[in-house]
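Q: Give me the 3D complex with phosphoenolpyruvate.
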Amino acid sequence: MRNKIVAGNWKMNKTMDEAVALTSEIVNMAKDEVSNDAKVILCPPALYLTTIQKYIADAPNFAVAAQNLSDKLSGAFTGEISAPMLQSIGVKYVLIGHSERRQYFNETNAMLAEKVNVALAHDIAPIFCCGESLEQRQNEDYIGFVKNQITESLFHLSAEQMRSVVIAYEPIWAIGTGLTASAEQAQEMHAALRAHLADKYGAEVAEQTSILYGGSVSAASAPELFASADIDGGLVGGASLKSREFTEIIKAR
Ligand code: PEP
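A: Here is the predicted complex, encoded as C-alpha coordinates.
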Protein backbone atom coordinates (compact mmCIF):
# COMPACT_ATOMS: atom_id res chain seq x y z
CA MET A 1 0.00 0.00 0.00
CA ARG A 2 1.23 3.49 -0.85
CA ASN A 3 1.86 6.12 1.81
CA LYS A 4 -0.66 8.95 1.78
CA ILE A 5 1.19 12.21 2.27
CA VAL A 6 0.08 15.78 2.84
CA ALA A 7 3.02 18.18 2.69
CA GLY A 8 2.89 21.90 3.44
CA ASN A 9 5.38 24.10 1.60
CA TRP A 10 5.64 27.34 3.56
CA LYS A 11 8.08 28.86 1.04
CA MET A 12 9.62 32.14 2.33
CA ASN A 13 6.84 32.93 4.79
CA LYS A 14 6.40 33.29 8.57
CA THR A 15 8.60 34.64 11.33
CA MET A 16 9.86 32.17 13.95
CA ASP A 17 6.98 32.95 16.35
CA GLU A 18 4.43 32.59 13.59
CA ALA A 19 6.00 29.32 12.43
CA VAL A 20 5.87 27.87 15.94
CA ALA A 21 2.25 28.98 16.39
CA LEU A 22 1.23 27.48 13.05
CA THR A 23 2.94 24.18 13.87
CA SER A 24 1.36 23.95 17.33
CA GLU A 25 -2.09 24.63 15.93
CA ILE A 26 -1.73 22.03 13.16
CA VAL A 27 -0.35 19.42 15.55
CA ASN A 28 -3.16 20.02 18.07
CA MET A 29 -5.89 19.83 15.47
CA ALA A 30 -4.51 17.10 13.22
CA LYS A 31 -2.31 14.72 15.14
CA ASP A 32 -5.10 12.24 15.88
CA GLU A 33 -6.23 12.34 12.25
CA VAL A 34 -3.08 10.82 10.77
CA SER A 35 -3.16 7.04 10.51
CA ASN A 36 -0.14 4.77 10.20
CA ASP A 37 -0.10 4.63 6.42
CA ALA A 38 -0.10 8.43 6.26
CA LYS A 39 2.34 11.28 6.78
CA VAL A 40 2.16 15.01 7.30
CA ILE A 41 5.34 16.77 6.18
CA LEU A 42 5.94 20.41 7.08
CA CYS A 43 8.43 22.30 4.89
CA PRO A 44 9.41 25.43 6.82
CA PRO A 45 12.25 27.76 5.89
CA ALA A 46 15.52 25.95 6.72
CA LEU A 47 16.23 28.38 9.55
CA TYR A 48 13.33 26.91 11.54
CA LEU A 49 13.81 23.18 10.85
CA THR A 50 15.31 22.24 14.23
CA THR A 51 12.72 24.27 16.14
CA ILE A 52 9.79 22.80 14.22
CA GLN A 53 11.21 19.30 14.79
CA LYS A 54 10.76 19.89 18.54
CA TYR A 55 7.16 20.95 18.11
CA ILE A 56 6.23 17.82 16.12
CA ALA A 57 8.20 15.42 18.33
CA ASP A 58 5.05 14.04 19.99
CA ALA A 59 3.03 13.82 16.81
CA PRO A 60 3.48 10.39 15.25
CA ASN A 61 3.68 10.46 11.46
CA PHE A 62 4.65 14.13 11.30
CA ALA A 63 8.00 15.05 9.73
CA VAL A 64 9.82 18.08 8.40
CA ALA A 65 11.32 18.60 4.96
CA ALA A 66 13.84 21.13 3.75
CA GLN A 67 12.69 23.21 0.77
CA ASN A 68 15.98 22.81 -1.07
CA LEU A 69 19.53 21.52 -0.75
CA SER A 70 22.80 22.12 -2.57
CA ASP A 71 24.11 19.69 -5.15
CA LYS A 72 27.54 20.19 -3.51
CA LEU A 73 28.60 18.54 -0.26
CA SER A 74 30.62 21.39 1.30
CA GLY A 75 32.86 24.32 0.48
CA ALA A 76 32.74 27.92 -0.66
CA PHE A 77 29.06 28.17 -1.62
CA THR A 78 27.82 31.08 0.47
CA GLY A 79 24.22 30.77 1.59
CA GLU A 80 23.77 27.16 0.52
CA ILE A 81 22.70 24.22 2.70
CA SER A 82 24.14 20.75 2.12
CA ALA A 83 22.79 17.22 2.46
CA PRO A 84 25.28 16.38 5.27
CA MET A 85 24.05 19.45 7.19
CA LEU A 86 20.42 18.37 6.84
CA GLN A 87 21.33 14.81 7.77
CA SER A 88 23.18 16.05 10.86
CA ILE A 89 19.95 17.55 12.23
CA GLY A 90 17.84 14.51 11.36
CA VAL A 91 15.93 15.84 8.35
CA LYS A 92 14.47 12.96 6.35
CA TYR A 93 12.83 14.71 3.38
CA VAL A 94 13.70 17.48 0.96
CA LEU A 95 11.79 19.20 -1.84
CA ILE A 96 13.77 19.00 -5.06
CA GLY A 97 12.92 20.76 -8.30
CA HIS A 98 10.08 22.99 -7.17
CA SER A 99 9.02 25.10 -10.16
CA GLU A 100 10.06 28.28 -8.32
CA ARG A 101 13.59 26.88 -8.00
CA ARG A 102 13.57 25.90 -11.66
CA GLN A 103 12.25 29.31 -12.71
CA TYR A 104 14.09 31.77 -10.43
CA PHE A 105 17.29 29.82 -9.77
CA ASN A 106 17.68 28.17 -13.19
CA GLU A 107 17.71 24.64 -11.82
CA THR A 108 17.95 22.20 -14.70
CA ASN A 109 16.96 18.54 -14.90
CA ALA A 110 20.66 17.60 -14.80
CA MET A 111 21.33 19.70 -11.70
CA LEU A 112 18.27 18.21 -10.03
CA ALA A 113 19.58 14.71 -10.77
CA GLU A 114 22.69 15.66 -8.75
CA LYS A 115 20.55 16.98 -5.90
CA VAL A 116 18.57 13.73 -5.89
CA ASN A 117 21.85 11.80 -5.67
CA VAL A 118 23.26 13.76 -2.74
CA ALA A 119 19.95 13.57 -0.88
CA LEU A 120 19.68 9.79 -1.25
CA ALA A 121 23.34 9.33 -0.33
CA HIS A 122 22.52 11.01 3.00
CA ASP A 123 19.31 9.13 3.77
CA ILE A 124 17.08 12.03 2.80
CA ALA A 125 14.06 11.18 0.66
CA PRO A 126 13.55 13.53 -2.28
CA ILE A 127 10.07 14.91 -2.88
CA PHE A 128 10.70 15.47 -6.56
CA CYS A 129 8.55 18.20 -8.11
CA CYS A 130 7.63 18.26 -11.78
CA GLY A 131 5.01 19.92 -13.94
CA GLU A 132 4.29 21.83 -17.11
CA SER A 133 3.59 25.53 -17.79
CA LEU A 134 0.29 26.73 -19.25
CA GLU A 135 1.98 27.31 -22.59
CA GLN A 136 3.32 23.75 -22.61
CA ARG A 137 -0.11 22.38 -21.71
CA GLN A 138 -1.67 24.29 -24.60
CA ASN A 139 1.01 23.83 -27.27
CA GLU A 140 3.03 20.74 -26.53
CA ASP A 141 2.87 17.13 -25.53
CA TYR A 142 2.49 18.13 -21.88
CA ILE A 143 2.52 14.56 -20.61
CA GLY A 144 5.70 13.87 -22.57
CA PHE A 145 7.26 17.03 -21.13
CA VAL A 146 6.67 15.96 -17.52
CA LYS A 147 7.71 12.36 -18.22
CA ASN A 148 10.96 13.74 -19.59
CA GLN A 149 11.59 15.74 -16.39
CA ILE A 150 11.35 12.44 -14.52
CA THR A 151 13.48 10.58 -17.04
CA GLU A 152 16.28 13.15 -16.90
CA SER A 153 16.35 13.67 -13.13
CA LEU A 154 15.38 10.25 -11.74
CA PHE A 155 15.86 7.43 -14.22
CA HIS A 156 19.55 6.99 -13.47
CA LEU A 157 18.51 5.67 -10.03
CA SER A 158 18.35 1.99 -9.16
CA ALA A 159 14.95 0.49 -8.36
CA GLU A 160 16.03 0.34 -4.72
CA GLN A 161 16.81 4.06 -4.69
CA MET A 162 13.59 4.87 -6.51
CA ARG A 163 11.62 3.32 -3.64
CA SER A 164 12.70 6.27 -1.45
CA VAL A 165 11.52 8.95 -3.88
CA VAL A 166 8.18 10.75 -3.61
CA ILE A 167 6.93 12.53 -6.73
CA ALA A 168 4.88 15.73 -6.66
CA TYR A 169 3.10 16.67 -9.88
CA GLU A 170 2.58 20.42 -9.79
CA PRO A 171 1.30 22.06 -12.97
CA ILE A 172 2.91 25.51 -12.92
CA TRP A 173 -0.30 27.13 -14.11
CA ALA A 174 -2.01 25.94 -10.93
CA ILE A 175 0.64 27.03 -8.40
CA GLY A 176 -0.41 30.05 -6.39
CA THR A 177 -2.96 31.03 -9.04
CA GLY A 178 -6.14 29.69 -7.47
CA LEU A 179 -6.56 27.52 -10.60
CA THR A 180 -6.61 23.90 -9.48
CA ALA A 181 -6.25 21.13 -12.04
CA SER A 182 -9.49 19.20 -12.15
CA ALA A 183 -9.41 15.75 -10.59
CA GLU A 184 -9.58 14.33 -14.15
CA GLN A 185 -6.64 16.42 -15.37
CA ALA A 186 -4.54 15.48 -12.35
CA GLN A 187 -5.49 11.80 -12.49
CA GLU A 188 -4.60 11.67 -16.21
CA MET A 189 -1.08 12.90 -15.47
CA HIS A 190 -0.62 10.78 -12.33
CA ALA A 191 -1.64 7.62 -14.17
CA ALA A 192 0.74 8.49 -17.02
CA LEU A 193 3.62 9.07 -14.59
CA ARG A 194 2.92 5.82 -12.77
CA ALA A 195 2.92 3.97 -16.11
CA HIS A 196 6.22 5.70 -16.94
CA LEU A 197 7.68 4.43 -13.64
CA ALA A 198 6.34 0.95 -14.38
CA ASP A 199 8.01 0.92 -17.81
CA LYS A 200 11.36 1.69 -16.22
CA TYR A 201 11.20 -0.02 -12.82
CA GLY A 202 8.34 -2.52 -13.06
CA ALA A 203 4.83 -2.51 -11.66
CA GLU A 204 5.79 -3.14 -8.05
CA VAL A 205 7.97 -0.04 -7.68
CA ALA A 206 5.43 2.05 -9.61
CA GLU A 207 2.59 0.86 -7.40
CA GLN A 208 4.39 1.76 -4.19
CA THR A 209 5.58 5.22 -5.28
CA SER A 210 3.55 8.05 -3.73
CA ILE A 211 2.62 10.67 -6.33
CA LEU A 212 1.29 13.88 -4.80
CA TYR A 213 -0.68 16.59 -6.55
CA GLY A 214 0.19 20.27 -5.98
CA GLY A 215 -1.35 23.46 -7.30
CA SER A 216 -3.81 25.58 -5.30
CA VAL A 217 -5.04 22.60 -3.27
CA SER A 218 -7.67 23.82 -0.79
CA ALA A 219 -9.99 22.26 1.76
CA ALA A 220 -12.69 22.43 -0.92
CA SER A 221 -10.72 20.75 -3.73
CA ALA A 222 -8.76 18.19 -1.70
CA PRO A 223 -11.45 15.51 -1.16
CA GLU A 224 -12.12 14.96 -4.87
CA LEU A 225 -8.46 15.16 -5.85
CA PHE A 226 -7.34 12.76 -3.12
CA ALA A 227 -10.10 10.28 -3.96
CA SER A 228 -8.57 9.74 -7.42
CA ALA A 229 -6.92 6.36 -7.90
CA ASP A 230 -3.38 7.59 -8.56
CA ILE A 231 -3.31 10.70 -6.36
CA ASP A 232 -1.67 9.85 -3.05
CA GLY A 233 -2.01 13.20 -1.30
CA GLY A 234 -0.91 16.74 -1.89
CA LEU A 235 1.89 19.28 -1.80
CA VAL A 236 0.17 22.39 -0.53
CA GLY A 237 1.49 25.95 -0.67
CA GLY A 238 -0.80 28.85 0.28
CA ALA A 239 -3.36 26.75 2.16
CA SER A 240 -0.65 25.20 4.35
CA LEU A 241 -0.10 28.60 5.98
CA LYS A 242 -3.58 28.48 7.55
CA SER A 243 -3.85 25.89 10.31
CA ARG A 244 -7.58 25.21 10.03
CA GLU A 245 -7.58 24.89 6.24
CA PHE A 246 -4.46 22.70 6.25
CA THR A 247 -6.01 20.45 8.89
CA GLU A 248 -9.08 20.03 6.69
CA ILE A 249 -6.78 19.02 3.82
CA ILE A 250 -5.01 16.52 6.09
CA LYS A 251 -8.39 15.03 7.00
CA ALA A 252 -9.27 14.69 3.30
CA ARG A 253 -6.34 12.43 2.46
C1 PEP B 1 3.51 24.82 -4.10
O1 PEP B 1 4.17 25.83 -4.01
O2 PEP B 1 4.07 23.72 -4.08
C2 PEP B 1 2.07 24.97 -4.27
C3 PEP B 1 1.40 23.93 -4.68
O3 PEP B 1 1.53 26.20 -3.97
P1 PEP B 1 -0.03 26.56 -3.95
O4 PEP B 1 -0.74 25.48 -3.17
O5 PEP B 1 -0.10 27.88 -3.25
O6 PEP B 1 -0.51 26.61 -5.35
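A quick observation: The longest strand covers residues 4-9.
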